[in-house]
## 1
Amino acid sequence: MSASLYKVTTFCAVALAMVDCATGAVVNQFLPIAGPTTPGNWYLADVAAGGTATIENLTGLGGNLETNQPLPTGAAKLTTVNTNPSKAEVYTYNDFGAASAFLGSASLGYSYYKANSGAISPDVAPAMKLQLFSAGGTGDNFGALVYEPYWNGAVTPDAWTTVAINSTTGGGGNDATGGWWWNGGFEVANGAGGPPLRSLAEWALAFAAADPVDFATARVVGIGMGIGTFNPAQTNYFDNVSYSYLAGGQTWDFEAAVPEPTSILLLSIAVGNALIVRRQRSA
């Protein structure tokens, strides 16, 4: 199996009965960003100050984490240490479509598990992020929308929660209903982790009004999951990340990598040789 296929492998609804064969993919690892990115791969976009992002096999861990996971047998794991600068953010990059149309009609979703961390940020859970960029922009042409679970309802610890988002989720101009916050760009100020909270469709209108030239050519170029700064001592999981937009879409299943056939053969030979030596010494 080639290295690229080892990282991202398509899977079929016959096997998992969850995702259409044409739109599902298994992700086995997060890659460092060392140059141009490849669509389909997921990358360690911003993992710093002791944060970690890994893909784990949940078999044998027990409890809700294992028994209620949405797509067995693995999930992505994000951790931060007990300092405010610690963060763990991963992204997949592609041209997902024109920002105005995507924000106006896309549906997104994911499942997360928030491990109980006591009194330290008890409501923090993995956030979904959408990066917008205008290649022909005049300057203020980049930014990210962030969907935080705690702005959109109570976060239940030690349980899997599935999030379903559409273009009007959190809409209506009332911050109490939730929605997405914005980290700045397209002439709209950084919400710094909070209000204004708007639906995707409302953000499209806000960008078009504030920066019509840049937003007219803006594209959705990244979909991410993460724990940002000022969220110390976190251990959280996510899986089953998806989006659909017009005729396209994708679902990602995060699974711990399994050894390639050659590796399995070599391991079997090594174990067999060790058993032979042990028997000879015991004779």
## 2
Amino acid sequence: MSDDVVLTTVHDRVGVITLNRPEKRNALNRAVQKALPEAIRTFDADDAVDVMVLTGADPAFSAGVDLKDIAAGGSDLVSPHVTQRGPFPPHAKPLIGAINGVAVTGGLELALNCDFLVASELARFADTHARVGILPGWGLTVLLPQAVGIRRARQMSATGNYVDAATALAWGLVNEVVPHEDLLPRVRALAADIVSNDQAAVRRLLASYAETAGTTLDEGWEIERRVSHEWLAREHDAGEVERRREGVIARGRSQRS
């Protein structure tokens, strides 16, 4: 077994980050909380990477902050290595969560901070902050209601009960549920779809989603209008635009059911 608590690989412009404490259900000790942001920063700055994927070494995605480590004096509830707004540093590239097993409390917050989630049929989700007597600090009370609605979020937090993969899909917490062995192949296929797009446009679109998330509807419309006008004012290669337009038409024909 590798001694590295976070593993990274790059293939076909997709960087995969794997939480690697399977014997601890990938609990987030200080070493993980230091290595995970570093891996994201590295991939975000790497010209060979267009898309990032976050997953866990089986059988878990992450059981959350390592409470045993905290009790032994080895970690704080929130490590100084994480940012003030969420567990990840600022990044421009898409980050897909491949949820291979339980995502609990801090692990659920990691998942919620990804751009979107694909789950194994074995995935389960729970917010157990209240069960252990701590409070979230990585955006759970903001991001969970955005994903599942305020009433379901309150239910998850107040009860601490687990939500299985099928329920997570029905509630909108995850985008897809696939057989366990198909999880990474499916995520890699989605990542390849992203790679095939104009990367500057992908990153600007994701930035726009982030900018409009905390605004009013009117402010959101204004942000999109401004960004669109600024984008169109840039110089564009007409031949490349036409090539991509033809590619969109061909792709649409190939994806007809």
## 3
Amino acid sequence: MTERPVRAFNGWLAVLSEAVVVVLTVGCIGAAVAAEGGASTGIFAALAVLLSLKALTLPVGFFLVKPNQAKVLVSFGRYVGTVRDEGFWWTYPWRVRRTFSLRIKTFDSDTLKVNDAVGNPVEIASVINWQVKDTAKAAFDVEDYQGFVHIQTEAAVRHVASEYPYDDYEDGQVSLRGNADEVMATLQNELQDRLQAAGVTVLDTRLRRLAYAPEIAGEMLRRQQAKAVVAARKTIVEGAVGMVDHALEMLSQQNIIELDEERKATMVSNLLVVLCSDRGVQPVVNSGSLYQ
């Protein structure tokens, strides 16, 4: 089923037609009364009845189309078309009119507990902005298009969350926390594929919540802290080695002092201790010789 546009009749012209029918009905009733039982009485009476029925049924066909709204028309079980033009319209009274909002809607999913790609339980929730693009699909291809959006969104969030680890445990690995934009693009594409059947377009997806489940949150926090400490220590050691190398090179170039291998080793050891220590070091003055 695919949406097709249809033009309804101008509502104000239909109002004018209704006025004409009412006037004719009154005229026929007056003519029937004036005939006083003559041969034309029956004709005018029949015309008055038919025009009265028409006058009563015409108002049933009036309808309004507001901005960002559409009306799906169905005639005796057959899809006629969709009116998207805003305004005051009229259609045949036996056509059923179903209203669809074309405004952008936001769905905030519940917080779901899902196992990520490596089996860690995480809590995840998303917010999606969506809009009805094909009213025929939304009306006839699914039972309840809004419920369909909600269910398919939660299913897609569960599937995408299970495809990625929460954190990048390996270099270059795509993760939920570290590659949110890429993950959301994947979620949006999957959602669009799922919701195509309902005539819905996904405009935007965002993660509202992403966290480890409470039962492992403490352990994972300690893991992240340990990883941060190791990375910091690595940076400190690399910087300290560079500083020691620079100091030895300057001493050698400026002939300040000549050091043998043992003295160099002692100096390197002392400098590394000073530079790499996470506490303030206490200087020790050596008044003797290294060889005593």
## 4
Amino acid sequence: MREYASVMPAVNQFEFHPFWKEFDLLNYCKENNILVNSYGPLGAPDYMSFHRDWWDVDLLNYPIIVEISKKKKRTPAQVLLRWQLQHGIIINARTSQYDHMVENLDLDNFELSDDEMEKINKIPNGKKIYPDPRGMH
């Protein structure tokens, strides 16, 4: 970014979830004091349900996520959001359901262990769910 920008951005928003992890970009932002705001933090389960040809299971039902959620007595969504918070990412989890809003905010009274974080980090990348802005004109 430095070679293109005369002013470094304060925030960079990009798709980030266990099926699409851009750790190089995340680390670059951290090294340059750029906050990261993820979109699609739950892997867009509503969208992915129509695209089983891309990935045969959504993140909310991914075995590692379900296993950790049961162990922590939390929902899979809470585990995914906590994983992002522990990576220092600002999250935007959208929902129109009140109970999901309350659930999405209840993330401060538990943490994922280093082992749990690493298990989630190692989930293989799938395909990018949202369009790549670099290809848009």
